């Protein structure tokens, strides 16, 4: 029986693959060497899984959505009466063009329809919706937090400014923030989650858990002046730096990993002021309190590299360990010159 010949890549293909692998390794080594602290934090968050969170879960014991919630570790939770969440829905877009009934070339049609649908649903349930534009956000910072404007203006990407603004807005006003690619449902209401937090003796901050680790920042519930939002605001200037790629810079300076690592830095008592939303509540296939629409305003090609790293922890682990050892030796010879300076921005 004649055996089939295996296809072998030609010399040019092999050279391209080896060159790509070479440059990928150089970048990975560079990133691990200069940003070892973020690597350690990410590994720790991944290793602990969901054990570090107070999770709001869904039960199937009742037909009433607002009563079908339980929490883990709820004996240590801070009473919600200290942190009431107002019925305010915050949305962010660069201008008010999303309010126009005609199709707009810069706005996905499904986003505009979902935005108007949310307004219709919430108006009937006594919610107030705020649309924050670029101009409105700048005016807000000038009036309320002028100390942060130099950091705000120094961000390289618009999405960083949007990320930072949502933390300040929730801290200042309280309420619920959702991205424009998150729609509302008529038979699943946000106040159901707020009422469930009250019944559980929970606290006034709620963030969704996401895969492969940590929090997502596209949906956030918080009371006015919540201490964890204050901590996030204080951490923003400290994390304002370049992380090697646009995607990683956003992820670690203002995005989901910034949010997750800031939570991980909290003490056990401080973590008891924050509640995590289970995937059953947040995900596309769960109870569908949130309608996840297609679309992304900041993902790019470099995101593939970051996601590859997250999927191949074992392959990266040996290089990470070696790099961190080298970095430790170098830092020991530097008389502590790499320590982070204290932020001059504080909540007063």
> What are the secondary-structure elements, in order, as H or E?
HHEEEHEHHHEEHEEHHHHEHEHH
Q: Which spans have pLDDT < 50 for at least 5 consecutive residues?
A: 328-348
Helix content: 40-55%
* Overall radius of gyration: 22 Å
What structural class do the secondary elements suggest?
Answer: alpha/beta
Main sheet record: 8 strands, mixed
Number of helices: 14
Strand line-up of the largest beta sheet: 2-1-9-7-8-5-3-4
What's the overall geometry? globular
Tell me the total number of β-strands.
10
**N- to C-terminal distance:** 82 Å
Instruction: Indicate the proportion of strand residues.
Output: 5-15%
Average pLDDT level: 78
Describe this structure in words.
The strands form 2 sheets. The protein has an 8-stranded mixed β-sheet with strand order 2-1-9-7-8-5-3-4, with helices on both faces. Strands 6-10 form a two-stranded antiparallel ribbon. It is globular, with a radius of gyration of 22 Å. The protein contains 14 helices and 10 strands. The protein has helices spanning 11-34, 36-48, 109-123, 134-144, 149-154, 158-173, 190-199, 227-235, 246-253, 256-264, 268-271, 279-282, 302-311, 313-332; strands at 55-58, 69-71, 88-92, 128-132, 175-178, 182-183, 205-208, 219-222, 275-277, 291-292.
